Amino acid sequence: MTILIFMNISNFLTLYKIKNQLMAGLTSSTIGRKYAMAFSALFLLVFLVMHLSVNMLSVFSKGAFDEASYFMGYNPLVQFLMQPILIFAVFFHFIMGFVLEIKNRKARPVKYLVNGANANSTWMSRNMIYSGLVVLAFLVLHMYDFWAHEMSYKYFPGGGDSQDIERFWIELHEKFADPIRVAAYVVAFVLLGLHLAHGFQSSFQSIGARHPKYTPFIKALGTWYSILIPLGFVFVAVFHFVTQSHH
Ligand code: HEM
């Protein structure tokens, strides 16, 4: 009996220790940070597929795009649950990205004299912070272009008629009349592709999804994803540019 009680207490203590280590680990250890980073990345990878799917509608049908945009813009679940989660994920991802980069630099303040990096890492993996910074700069422009306008339209007095459900396609189409904006977007999409080329498979590695049987598949999927998704965005931007009626 005493032994049993003792075992239970020690079990409980061990569990308590593990729980504490896990909680502390998630926020303070490099492994924890990598996990958290990877989860936010996986979430963003799913978001990009959804975002591109809606954008693609604008190529095939104005009506379908307007309807989808209206749904995304006015459905309370999307607006007040998904959107805050997305904003959190985006902020979390880039702040954590900086933190990891700084920690990594501190861990190796002196650069390797002979950097045989090409032999064991790719250019993409070594430059995630730079490709990420370009995507971040793009996001600032992008939020200014679409999101800020939409917020002021919807939530500020005199912003516009919220019942106008046919405005979305025209707004998007008109944005891409400007060749400089189209060029800036395309450059950002190329860098996004490079970011994803390493990021996709890396996020799976970080959560421990590594297996001789599945890793090659994940890598191949990552390569396709990082080519097709940015190419899709390029296609949408260029499509609207070349189909402008006034040039
Ligand atoms: C041709 C390419 C793209 C087009 C035409 C486009 C268009 C749009 C539009 C119309 C919105 C909706 C704004 C609103 O009504 O709230 C939006 C939101 C957004 N886009 Fe894009 N987008 C493109 C590429 C991208 C890429 C590559 C990313 C990420 C790297 C991205 C990230 C976002 C984010 C984070 C939002 C905010 C979603 C929200 O919370 O409302 N977009 N985009």
Automatic annotation (TrEMBL):
<protein>
    <submittedName>
        <fullName>Succinate dehydrogenase / fumarate reductase cytochrome b subunit</fullName>
    </submittedName>
</protein>
<feature type="transmembrane region" description="Helical">
    <location>
        <begin position="182"/>
        <end position="200"/>
    </location>
</feature>
<dbReference type="GO" id="GO:0016020">
    <property type="term" value="C:membrane"/>
</dbReference>
<feature type="transmembrane region" description="Helical">
    <location>
        <begin position="221"/>
        <end position="242"/>
    </location>
</feature>
<dbReference type="InterPro" id="IPR011138">
    <property type="entry name" value="Cytochrome_b-558"/>
</dbReference>
<feature type="transmembrane region" description="Helical">
    <location>
        <begin position="35"/>
        <end position="60"/>
    </location>
</feature>
<dbReference type="InterPro" id="IPR034804">
    <property type="entry name" value="SQR/QFR_C/D"/>
</dbReference>
<feature type="transmembrane region" description="Helical">
    <location>
        <begin position="80"/>
        <end position="100"/>
    </location>
</feature>
<keyword id="KW-1133">Transmembrane helix</keyword>
<keyword id="KW-0812">Transmembrane</keyword>
<keyword id="KW-0472">Membrane</keyword>
<feature type="transmembrane region" description="Helical">
    <location>
        <begin position="128"/>
        <end position="147"/>
    </location>
</feature>
